Amino acid sequence: MEQAISKKRTLKKIISYAPIYLMMLPGLAYLFINNYMPLPGLVVAFKDYNAKKGIYGSDWAGFKNFTYLFKTDDAWIITRNTILYNLAFIVINTALAIIVAIILSELAAKRLKKFTQSAILLPYLISSVIISYLVFAFLSSENGFVNNTLLPLLGITPKNWYAEPKYWPFILIFVNAWKSVGYNCIIYLATIIGIDREYYEAASIDGATKMQQIRHITLPLIVPVVTMLTLMAIGRIFYSDFGLFYQVPQNQGALYSTTNTIDTYVYRGLLQQSNISMSSAAGVYQSIVGFILVLGSNLIVRKFNKENALF
Amino acid sequence: MKTREEKVFQAVGAIFMIILAAVALIPIILLVIASFTSNNAIVQNGYSFIPKEWSLEAYEYMFLSSNKIIKAYGVSFFITAVGTVCSLVITTMLAYGLSKRDLPGRGFITFYIVFTMLFNGGLVPTYLMYTGIFNIKNTIWALLIPNLLMNAYNIMLAKSYFVTSVPNEILEAAKIDGAGEFRIFVRIAVPIAKPIIATIGMFVGIAYWNDWNNGFIYLTTNTDLYSIQNLLNRMIQNIQFLTQNSAGISQAQQGLAQIPASSVRMAMAVMGILPIVLIYPFIQNNFVKGITLGGVKG
Predict the structure, then answer these.
(1) What ipTM was reported for this prediction?
(2) Residues of B (17-46) whose Cβ lies below 8 Å from A
(3) Which of A93, A205, A220, B92 has CA 20 to 30 A from B232's CA?
(4) Which of A130, A140, A232, A302 to mutate to test the interface with B (most CBs of B within 10 A)?
(5) How far apart are CA B224 and CA B231, in angstroms?
(6) Domain boundaries defined on chain B
(7) CB distance B150–A31 less than 8 Å?
(8) 3-class secondary-structure state, position A302
(9) How many angstroms separate the CA atoms of B226 and B268, rounded?
């Protein structure tokens, strides 16, 4: 009897919320289409894909696509590149963002502070296609600023930048830092501004120098945020910025050894070489390892601070 | 009273910031100068901060000799406007519902949304689904729908704003006065949530304006639908194709002569950045606030 009443009550409640559900429907439907409907398509990685037969009509291939993929050098190269670039980005971007945030927070020249903040955030808003044009203006072997003006000035012979893979780790790390330092320092800056000024006043009365204040007050107090952001970044270590790795090296084959990541490999397999089976195997590999890493990093973040975890 | 140490810190800090700001802006300045350089000067001396010969030829060519660029600009503005509006409507409606604490099924719906942040099928299944089932290849839908229309981060951002800043008492009072849920949402919740809606709208708008990925993947034959980003992208590809696949140098040069010259390319890139730079002073504060709100999750 009681159960029936409570059931009735729930039903009534659901009905009273009908307009709300209706409002939520378009968004939920979009997520269903964009994020859930593709999931069954993951089986294509286990198929011998034939466009005529479609995903589900194609013959099963078991783990053949994966064995092929991991037999090639590509699997190793793309995994190595993706992880090493991300590690370099995490270390360099974090260090740079913290330094910039600390200086910005202490800078007495307010106009310079405002100007710098505006200037360094702007690159973040530029599309990777246009970033590739900017890089090209510097590095083009015929017309680039570096080859035509900078290197002759230093007495160094011009280099064919788009044909020499060894320079690209530095170029890409630089471009990435250039693009994201303004964005990355925002959260650190907000954290530092949130620190109680009394700590600094007390320290300064006790005769602590600026560097000592930074070392013993600012840095310890931003450690939790640094830890959190780093953990989140490690969770995404299997994903790369497709625009950065595809557009900026201008998809030059000669540079693949140092510019190919999982994302660019999957794309090239899909559209350029029409090698859907191999490409989807790499995609599944990324989805699964990526999922484990995101999940793991989130569980750790949750232990520190529930608010900051994704779930 | 300033100590010597403080003075040194301020001086070093100021110099470092000036260098940083310069490094951030110099590439953009070079791009702008290159677009105002005569093509001959670029061919002779390369892209330079102090061109041998200034010229407006790139812009004249762009606006007078070709309607491709204006068309692509139109496409970019169209998808940015339509995409942002649609995105805001479905995102805020979903987030508003999610902010109702006693909504039956709230836990499941939250999981349904958060899961999309943790796991996704990736490019291949998404591509096969959109082209196979929805046939969006070479249609305007390809620029509007895949991935850009809504994402879980923005839903969560809007949801927490509704939870913390829209007082439940006001909503309840309106309900007692007999206002319907949709009316309450439009008349009360949305006006209060304006700041977060503006922030999300800006994130989404920039993403649409800058997107080249969807056009790149789905617009294979219908180049009429190219946005400015796709047009810029196509130009790089064409040049590579010619330099890599032409039988001889003369053939490559013949092909290259057909493509807008070096200065025109840079002028087009300038046009691609221009709207962002123009609205930048107005959106910057909002943008920074949005990132801080999204906090660690952003």
Answers:
(1) 0.90
(2) 17-18, 20-21, 23-25, 27-28, 30-31, 34, 42-43, 45-46
(3) A93
(4) A130
(5) 10
(6) 66-259
(7) yes
(8) helix
(9) 14
Given an 8 Å threshold on Cβ–Cβ distance, is A291 in contact with B118?
Answer: yes
Helix (H, G, I), strand (E, B) or coil at B54: strand
Is A149 inside any structural domain? no
Over residues B117-141, mean pLDDT: 92
Task: Tell whether A125 lies on the interface with B, counting CB pairs under 8 A.
Answer: yes
Record the tokens describing residue A148, joined without a space.
């035509």
Specify burial of residue B153 (Cβ count, 10 A radius: 0-12, 13-18, 19+): middle
Longest dimension (CA), chain A: 93
Name the percent of chain A lying above pLDDT 70. Answer: 96
Give the distance from residue A74's alpha carbon to the nearest chain B alpha carbon, in angstroms. 18
Query: How many structural domains compose chain A?
Result: 1
Q: Which residues of B touch A104 (CB under 8 A)?
A: 17
- Judge whether A16 lies within some domain: no
Q: Which of A12, A35, A42, A185 to mutate to test the interface with B (most CBs of B within 10 A)?
A: A35
Q: Say whether pLDDT at B16 is over 50.
A: yes
* CATH code for the part of the protein at B66-259: 1.10.3720.10
Interface of B with A in 52-71 (CB under 8 A): none
Q: Contacts of residue B3 in chain A, CB cutoff 8 Å? A: 209
Instruction: End-to-end CA distance of chain A: give it in Å, rounded.
Output: 37
Cβ-based neighbour number of residue A133 at 10 Å: 28
Report the alpha-carbon distance of residue B78 to residue A295 in Å, rounded.
38
Q: Across-strand partners of B37?
A: B54
**What is the model's pTM?**
0.91
pLDDT digits (tens, 9 = 90+) for A276-291: 888 889 999 999 999 9
Query: Is A125 contained in some domain?
Result: yes
The dihedral formed by the CA atoms of A196, A198, A201 and A206, expressed in degrees to the nearest 10: -120
The domain of A269 spans 64-130+158-308
pLDDT, one tens digit per residue, over B178-230 is 888 899 999 999 999 999 999 999 999 999 999 999 999 999 888 899 999 99
Does position A293 have pLDDT exceeding 60, yes or no? yes
Per-residue pLDDT at B242: 62
Establish if A31 belongs to a structural domain: no
CATH number of domain containing A244: 1.10.3720.10
Q: Do B20 and A251 touch (CB under 8 A)?
A: no
Q: Give B65→chain A minimum CA distance, Å.
A: 22
d(CA A1, nearest CA chain B) in Å: 22
pLDDT tens digits for range A25-68: 999 999 999 999 999 989 989 988 887 888 888 888 888 889 98
* Predicted pLDDT of residue A107: 92
Give the mean pLDDT of chain A.
90
Across the interface, whether the CB atoms of A308 and B297 are under 8 A apart is answered yes
